[in-house]
Amino acid sequence: MSKEEDQLNNLSREERFKIAASNPLLAGIVYRVNEAENRRRTAEAQKKPPVVRPIIPTTVMQGDTRGLTQRQGLHTPTIQEIIARGNAPRSTEVVFDTNSNSMRQIDPLAPYTDFSGNFPKTVDPLKPVLKISHLG
Amino acid sequence: MTEKDTSAKIPFTNLVDRDKLTQAILSTFSAEELNTATQNKVFSWSDNFVDFVAQSDKNPLGEIARKVRFVKLLAEVQLHENLDAQGKKLFFDVDFEK
Fold first, then answer.
1. Does the distance separating the beta carbons of A20 and B20 come in below 8 Å?
2. Contacts of residue A13 in chain B, CB cutoff 8 Å?
3. Rounded-to-10 torsion of CA A80, A85, A91, A93
4. Which of A50, A73, A136, B64 has its CA 20 to 30 A from that of A4?
5. Where are the domains of chain A?
6. How many CB atoms lie within 10 A of CB B24?
7. Do B49 and B10 contact (CB within 8 A), yes or no?
């Protein structure tokens, strides 16, 4: 590495670009320093171990869970209750998506899905809401 | 890198100096690369602008494409600095991380 490359190496990219813009004869050296930095960054990124996300214990319940949740002091709203809520502020809750094995937020007022990605075209108001609770 | 990223038509004005950009290109590209670039019509020079077409069906030239992007950034830095000197601001920032 030449003396100029060594000095440029200690500067930020912005400073290097400004030097090259004002002194274009140094542009080639700045380019080489930048490319070397890019290669170093790529190598460092490849060295880092993959991020391991902690597994959050969850219980997934499907279907009519009103009996269960009432015993636990919770209440699963029915479609009628949700409709009656009207413009009540929406809240989201976190559920465990068994398809993707990850946590995600759902909007309790949005039409539910069975996680196959297919939303039902119509919702039967008499059918209890599919409730998946995160109890962990 | 896509064609959109690297293709650039840079006009020479009092804000982007033709001589400085020419020097930067001569400093960055080797003679062989300049030959290849010329043969593949990567550069199109005129008195008023330089047109880069670094990445296309005719020019799948990775290293040359990266150098074109570098020179294009230098032109943007020149533009910013000259506008700053005139007390003007541009609406975009130069992305130095490219």
1. no
2. 96-97
3. -20
4. B64
5. 3-47, 53-136
6. 27
7. yes
The domain segmentation of chain B, as residue ranges, is 3-85
ipTM score of complex: 0.76
| pLDDT grade for A101, boundaries at 50, 70 and 90 | low
* H/E stretch holding A75: none
Residues 6+ apart with CB under 8 A from A16: A8, A30, A33, A34
- List of chain A residues whose C-beta atoms are within 8 Å of the C-beta of residue B67: 31
Residue A1, burial from CB neighbour count under 10 angstroms (0-12, 13-18, 19+): exposed
Using one digit for the tens of pLDDT, what is the confidence trace for A13-67? 889 998 998 888 999 999 999 999 989 988 988 887 777 776 665 555 555 555 5
Going from the C-alpha of B86 to that of each of B10, B80, B81, the distances in angstroms are 20, 10, 9
CB contact under 8 A, A24 and B24: yes
Among B28, B66, B81, the residue with its CB nearest the CB of A27 is B28
Best probe of the B interface among A18, A19, A29, A40, by most B CBs < 10 A, is: A18
pTM of the prediction?
0.54
* Alpha-carbon gap, residue A107 to A103, rounded angstroms: 13
Phi, psi of B19 (to 5 degrees): -65, -40
Distance CA B71, CA B73 (A): 5
Chain B (66-85) residues lying within 8 Å, Cβ to Cβ, of chain A? 66-67, 70-71, 73-74, 77-78, 81
